[in-house]
């Protein structure tokens, strides 16, 4: 079944009618309120100053998704389809889409000192995700007015139609700084089609530049195994791998709620039997069970950087003539 786009304010998500329920849609039942640089909705108390934060205010009303009305003017989906409509000045007021009466002469507004436009060092359309970036399934596109979410590798190259500028509200008219179209109603403003075409961008620039994180780990041992806990909360089971060699443990983990990754290769203190090792991805950690290649007690999990283990430790179950655990000194270089 084809997906539909919800027309409720603050939602605009895609959905399938068969999955549409009484609690599927979180939206706003009121109208947008802009006052003294604060932005919010009349139906809930939260106020923000940034327009992007305003667009992301969670809905305060729960109900069913409602499709965009078939009678609504279609939203342009390509830059070629975005055309400017006439704006005239009548009695000193800006009126969208109305022709000036014959007896009324359009008067330009009072001139204001022009302020040079500040050109960003990097244009929005040039900020793309790295080809090998780790992107969680379900991540929303960061580009303005785009509602696409990441569904897999095909989303990396899919076409994105978006606005690269900022919203402009002036004397009742509403639009974007990157294109000429202006409207009066806020609902119509939300439907102004993008004027730029490029690739989707799912990661914030700061996140894309620094994705790798460190995770705390702990370990303990039994006579035959070493159990290692990697505290990687909300690791994505489908995109987490653990590999074993006789002397190393390698972990690569991605997360469900962020684009960060955890990658580490641990040189092990003693040898293991790789084919008998296993791991589990749990809600708060990755638990790894290493099968010892011998019956020795491990003095440490990780081999020191100089490659030398110097510590007295015992084997499990080996006794000397006095009934005591027999010490074994191990020096590895």
Automatic annotation (TrEMBL):
InterPro entries: CHORD_dom, CHRD1, CS_dom, HSP20-like_chaperone. One of its GO terms (molecular function) is metal ion binding. The keyword NAD does not apply. CDD domains: p23_CS_SGT1_like (cd06466). The keyword Metal-binding applies. Gene3D superfamilies: 2.60.40.790, 4.10.1130.20. PROSITE patterns: CHORD, CS. It comes from the Eukaryota. Residues 6-65, 141-200 form the CHORD domain. This is Chord-domain-containing protein. It comes from Rhizoclosmatium globosum. Keywords: Metal-binding, Repeat, Zinc. Residues 212-302 form the CS domain.
């Amino acid at each position: 079944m084809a997906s539909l786009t919800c027309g409720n304010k603050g939602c605009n998500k895609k959905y399938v009618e068969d999955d549409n329920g009484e609690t599927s849609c979180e939206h706003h039942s009121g109208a947008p309120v802009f006052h003294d640089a604060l932005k919010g909705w009349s139906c809930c108390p939260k106020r923000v100053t940034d327009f992007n934060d305003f667009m992301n205010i969670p809905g305060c009303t729960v109900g069913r998704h409602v499709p965009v009305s078939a009678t609504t003017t279609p939203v342009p989906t390509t830059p070629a389809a975005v055309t400017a409509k006439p704006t005239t000045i009548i009695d000193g007021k800006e009126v969208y889409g109305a022709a000036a009466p014959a007896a009324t002469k359009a008067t330009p507004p009072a001139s204001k000192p022009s302020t040079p436009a500040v050109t960003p060092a990097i244009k929005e359309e040039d900020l793309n995700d790295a080809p090998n970036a780790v992107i969680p399934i379900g991540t929303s596109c960061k580009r303005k007015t785009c509602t696409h979410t990441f569904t897999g590798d095909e989303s990396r190259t899919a076409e994105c139609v978006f606005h690269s500028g900022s919203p402009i509200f002036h004397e009742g008219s509403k639009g974007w700084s990157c294109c000429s179209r202006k409207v009066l109603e806020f609902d119509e403003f939300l439907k102004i089609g993008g004027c730029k075409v490029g690739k989707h961008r799912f990661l914030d620039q700061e996140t894309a530049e620094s994705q790798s994180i460190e995770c705390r780990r702990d370990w303990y041992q039994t006579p035959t195994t070493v159990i290692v806990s990697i505290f990687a909360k909300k690791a994505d089971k489908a995109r987490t791998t653990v590999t074993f060699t006789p002397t190393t443990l390698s972990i690569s983990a991605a997360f469900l709620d962020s684009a960060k990754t955890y990658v580490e290769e641990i040189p092990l203190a003693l040898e293991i039997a790789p084919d008998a090792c296993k791991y589990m991805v749990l809600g708060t950690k990755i638990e790894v069970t290493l099968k010892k290649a011998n019956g020795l007690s491990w003095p440490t999990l990780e081999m020191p950087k100089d490659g030398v283990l110097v510590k007295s430790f015992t084997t499990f179950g080996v006794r000397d003539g006095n009934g005591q655990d027999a010490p074994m000194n191990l020096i590895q270089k």
